[in-house]
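Running log. JK asked me to keep both predictions on one page so they can be read side by side. First protein, sequence followed by its tokens:
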Amino acid sequence: MRVVVPDDYNDVYGASPAIAGLRARAEVAIYTAPHGSLDELVERLRDAEIVVANRERLPLRAELFDRLPRLRLIAQTGLRGGHLDLAAATARGILVGGTAGPASADSTAELAIGLMLAAMRRIPRGDAELRAGRWSQFVGREVRGKQLGVLGLGRIGGRVARVAQALGMVVCAWGPTLTPERAAAAGVAYRPLDALLAGSDVVTIHLRLSPESRGLLDRSKLALLKPTALLVNTARAAIVDEAALVERLRDGRLWGAALDVYGEEPPPPGHPLLALPNVVLSPHVGWVAEGAYAEFIADVVATIEAYLDGRPLPHPLNPEAADRRG
């Protein structure tokens, strides 16, 4: 039995006790460098019956599955993502198991707060100036008393709301299924989307990517934001019209943005976001933290061991695929 981890770019799987235990039952191959092409990825996975996929790093689609006839199980960190064609996997009898631990919600929520504070106090600018030998003085912004608008009051958005309240922010929220009663139970005020965008000093996005949320913050919605507002996105880039966001930031119609996700990852050289001084950037690391990784790897190994034992997967995403295996 061959298990392949093709995308361990942070080089953490090899030292995991859970992986050490798995090696007693299966051959485990780990790649720490990104693949350069689809052909290179296929070569890495050619003999694998089980593939471990870290979040959205791999294009798990029909064109890949058709070149991997031995593939029977995808053990994925997380429960969903735009990288995964679940219908294509199911049609080919490829089981997909996910993970549902809370640690990644903690790490993403913490990063969202960190990005907000870094942007409001211009911390990256101060770091760069000091390293360049300049003792620059500039005026930052406190968050106490500011209104935070949370888009999506789920596991991550709820954590962000609680931390923001502890910092003295006034928190309101909107979500496609959020009700005023649920918002009140979480200790925040419900606002319709347009009112939240128009009234918030900081807007932070914690929505799942879906047909309803894709392109939600389009040109017209972005125009509702105050010129003095900050937009934070640690969710999915496709929720925001990136070109329209760049225009507003460049023209001074939006004070700033703090981003962990991008339309193309990594952003190519010359991307306009890389040149904007009013943007704080991080390389899609919302979930990339020690606790989240340890939890993810343990859950991935539990998924693989369940498959090896012939037991139901802990978090099956397409249990019907088991009926289609040859």
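And the second, directly underneath as requested:
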Amino acid sequence: MYIIGQEEIDALARVIKSKTLFRYSIGHECERFEQRYAQWLGAKHFSLSASGSYALTAAMIGLGIGPGDEVLVPAHTYMATATSVLAVGAIPVIVDINESITLDPAAFEAAIGPYTRAVIPVHMWGTTCDMDAIMAIAQQRRLLVIEDCCQGVGGSYKGRKLGTIGDLGCFSFNFYKNMSAGEGGGVVTNDDAVIKRVNCAIDPCHAFWTGRGEDEMPFAGNGARASELMGAVLNVQLDRIDGIVAAMRRERDQIHAGIGPALELGLKLAPLNSKDHDCGANVFLTLPNADSAETFVKTFPSVIAGKTGRHTYIEWDQVLQGAGAAHPLMNPYNMPANARCRRTYSRDMCARSLDILNRTVLVPTQPQHSKEDVANIIHNIIAATRVALGHASKDEVELRNAAPIDTIKYDTKQLAW
């Protein structure tokens, strides 16, 4: 959460004083946010859920994905992208990323098999996937596309809001996201039939509260509905998101423009698929190798992408160990329908991704950074590059004070983001 203040306090107080904390029949904050956010995205439907993880599960349920299906997921994303596939009985197949830290379209195309049903491109760390290439491949191969926008709230791809390009889009509003209610998530789509299944997945009683349709076929699902407290906070946060993203994108561009001396020494900027429209939440710096990246972050405290805990596939214990469910009879890896799917993994299966991740450094932006903060970050990136690439010793450079890196978001011992 970047900015929270009196407006959120007032919104929560109004709901509590009204004693209308339940969203159906008596409350209106969740419904108001769903309508406003769908309009902001330029989409027909948006449904809130209790978390981004469950939004991914509900999206796949909405599309009818299940046992016998493979779903392609990138090697670098929060593990919920993969475990949500298991939650619907399907099998995740792990695919390489490229230097943009997002799904490699060429690797995606090469990974498609006879039982591949869908792909989940993840807009990671506030940047965007190469959606033109991904959508072209998916349409040619008749695959469903579920955009994981949990880390890309507020961003766009070439002018189109993230989440509205594929068949469905999924969002997270937990504490570590650009727009936050502490926890929460949701699904966006333009498909009338799909949103009914999504709503039933989120709340099996949804049709009871809103009215049954003659064509609806309800099914049993876990409850994951939102509360009015979440809706109230999100309505305020929605008013903030454009300013937050614009400030971060502006800071990112200022840093890019200011670190010319570091780029001349051999530091590289990771490629961005939609620089003018993404969230600008991080500056992505590419070092020649893992050792120089380690030296960089020891000089200027920042974050190596490959060392952010459960974001990289080698840390997805449940997937690597085949623990796809709490009960063995419900474990997708044991289901006869999945016998034909690819169900084996190894820690070195995406070695190219690991190499990229372990030499990519993230320097986060922050919408409340001052001009001095940004100037200090630029200075420190140049200084750390000099040390990392052998042009100075650590004792020869002087770092300036700068707003500290938010280690809660990135620490390898945390499961944040």
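Observation for JK regarding the second prediction: The first strand starts at residue 45 and ends at 49.
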